[in-house]
Design brief:
heterodimer, A: mainly beta, six-stranded mixed sheet, five-stranded antiparallel sheet, 11 strands, globular, B: mainly beta, four-stranded antiparallel sheet
């Protein structure tokens, strides 16, 4: 069983839609939960990070963690064409992150 | 803040040659740097973790004699792919973690832009 599972998509939505991206993980000891955005042929860019269950909001982005279900989500409100990218979840502990396979998102104008 | 650079961004070399990739933290001191490898449409695979002044810790299955990592200063780590072969062609990405003045970047990893290696 992989440490982190992520639906690869692709996910195609119209501009302005609410996007939901999800990951599950296997180790209940994991304490760090991150979301990265990666454009084609570029390095990942940190979007959100949190350590606790619940919601964390930053602008149009909301990260949600449910430790009891070992499930994390990233919500994007009012999605824009510029949000089109691959979104990677990273989950783990201080010394090591495990990355999901990435969900490719396409926001159509 | 928290900017990481990599050089070169792209390199093409002949089989059998060695290639050095540099990773620099530009505005913070990176106590730990990580090296990843990414194949097309796949996620990041951790190759090794290096702490400044210490030997790197390699992940299982990664040949430490082939992928030489040096983290000699708090702002620079290098990955040398020795005797590169076509199967080493990949996208190599570094990330850094550390602290910088009032900005604590101790828990997350900030990534460089990546280096695309093509071995002919």
């Amino acid at each position: 069983q992989k440490e982190v599972e992520q639906d690869p998509g692709p996910l195609s939505v119209p501009e302005g839609a609410i996007v939901s991206l999800n990951c599950t993980y296997s180790n209940s000891a994991f304490q760090y939960f991150m979301w990265y955005r990666q454009y084609s042929r570029k390095g990942p860019e940190l979007l959100m990070y949190t350590y606790s269950s619940g919601n964390k909001e930053d602008g149009r982005f909301t990260a949600q963690v449910d430790k009891s279900s070992k499930y994390i989500s990233l919500f994007i409100r009012d999605s824009q064409p510029s949000d089109s990218a691959t979104y990677l979840c990273a989950i783990g502990n201080f010394n090591k992150f495990y990355f999901g396979s990435g969900t490719k998102l396409n926001v159509k104008p | 803040g928290a900017v990481v650079s990599q050089h070169p961004s792209r390199v093409i070399c002949k089989s059998g040659t060695s290639v050095k990739i540099e990773c620099r933290s530009l505005d913070f001191q990176a106590t730990t740097m990580f090296w990843y490898r990414q194949f097309p449409k796949q996620s990041l695979m951790l190759m090794a973790t290096s702490n400044e002044g210490s030997k790197a810790t390699y992940e299982q299955g990664v040949e430490k004699d082939k992928f030489l990592i040096n983290h000699a200063s708090l702002t620079l780590s290098t990955l040398t792919v020795t005797s590169a072969h076509p199967e080493d062609s990949s996208f190599y990405i570094c990330s850094a973690r550390g602290t910088s003045g009032n900005l604590v970047i101790a828990d997350t990893q900030y990534f460089g832009p990546g280096t695309r290696l093509t071995v002919l």
